[in-house]
Predict the 3D structure of the following.
Amino acid sequence: MGTTQLGQGKSQQEAEVEEEDGIIKYACLYNGVNGLYLHVFPEKERSVPSMVTQTKKLCVKPPTMLPGIGDAAWYCEVEGDFMSTMVYKRGHGQIRFAWVYLIGETRSDVYETMAKRLAERL
């Protein structure tokens, strides 16, 4: 893919699309580990509730749920002082899981806006 420079020494890197066990993985990294990730799972033999239960285990504190966005959405602090905004949405025989992974904390309305935008595009 490509790299775009963002100011002084900052960059955006779109990773190669990966496929593993029927799961398609997309990633766009900003300045290293900050990034936007999307995984597309075949819905067969999977459920959003069970996937959500597993994903919430990444949170180091209880997640803040964002009701009414996708099939499930929340934000939480994860290891290393990172914050994640996560959205699950079903459609076309797939479960789509997107998350934004950023260092540091910001206002709660920012996480909600990110989640809404992710859900609109999934």
Q: What stands out?
A: The beta strands are 3-5, 11-14, 18-20, 23-30, 34-42, 64-65, 72-78, 82-91, 94-103. The domain at 3-121 is CATH 3.40.1000 (Protein Transport Mog1p; Chain A). Helices lie at 48-56, 108-121.
